[in-house]
UniProtKB/TrEMBL annotation:
Signal peptide: none
Organism domain of life: Bacteria
Domain Calcineurin-like phosphoesterase: 6-142
Bilayer-spanning residue ranges: none
Organism for this UniProt entry: Bradyrhizobium campsiandrae
Pfam families, sorted: Metallophos (PF00149)
Listed name of the protein: Serine/threonine protein phosphatase
Amino acid sequence: MGLTYAIPDLHGRLDLLERALREILEHAAGRDACVVALGDYVDRGPNSREIVELLTTWPFPSLRLIALKGNHEAMMWEACNNLVETDWWLENGGDATLASYGGLRMGEALRTLIPERHLQWIGKLPTIYADPHRIFVHAGVDPRLPLNQQNERTLLWKRYPKGSSLGHGMRHVVHGHHANEQGPVVCKGRTNLDVMAWRTGRLVVGVFCDDKAGGAVEFLEVRGNSSAG
């Protein structure tokens, strides 16, 4: 029985990621498994750089990593490539990311502060991953469109209307992005794992059986310090 573990929005909380990975390794009990990270590794929390470094070097041979892009990685990449105003990114948590890279000195360009290999990795992140039973994505999918016709803005920024339980055809959608401290939110067609971990100090990992359709068979929860920020 293959297992896939979905890790939602981390926003700089390396402590929670490290605890989650220990839980996943213990739960997998030596079996090979898949880890899908749903994006938003950077911004808001204190350790964005360290999270990106861990994901780019990934020291767990028994865990196949699929790291997806979140809207915060998109903002970071666009700001560093002068495609959006830097202040827009900074006002949305990018200031914490810059601090994790050592802080920007007067007149210094973003690309001199952030390692090029980090930016290249972010630029190549996929926006969606699908297996026979599920679709993993940062924010959501348009249920009316085939997967190969999805708009990137939808995948990175979508908010599902309150009460919506739509997945995508017969597939269950697993996502983050829509923060809910009381989550995870489990509906017939989708599961939202984002419980605002960077603020609450609580991270919920979904455990999915590769041979079984539908939602998670179980959840792994780790806790750290909450933030007043």
